[in-house]
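Q: I'm building a small set of examples for a reading group on sequence design. Run inverse folding on the following structure and report the sequence directly after it, with nothing in between.
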């Protein structure tokens, strides 16, 4: 299952979460199957997001949507501080 891994600085968590939650419907329409959001214990101004998709094409399309429609607009992305890093990841099987 491909994942879109995103990380970036934020101004504050509550502002960022409010903006993130406004795009819940867009994520569902784009095919996001699950969402994981993490924040480092030692850095409350940084965030990690993993969005899982069924296909690499869905992940790539949503990445383009974020780059074009969300991250390029301060109105659409309040709470964002700096440029996000986004990569599409594939799972690697590990043998114990």
């Amino acid at each position: 299952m491909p994942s879109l891994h995103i990380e970036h600085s934020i101004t504050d968590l509550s502002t960022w979460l409010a903006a993130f939650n406004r795009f819940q419907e867009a994520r569902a329409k784009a095919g996001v199957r699950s969402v994981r959001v993490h924040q480092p214990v030692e850095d409350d101004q940084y965030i990690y997001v993993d969005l899982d998709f069924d296909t690499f094409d869905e992940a790539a399309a949503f990445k383009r949507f974020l780059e074009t429609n969300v991250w390029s607009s301060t109105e659409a992305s309040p709470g964002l501080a700096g440029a996000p890093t986004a990569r599409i990841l594939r799972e690697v099987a590990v043998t114990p």
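The chain has a mean pLDDT of 95.
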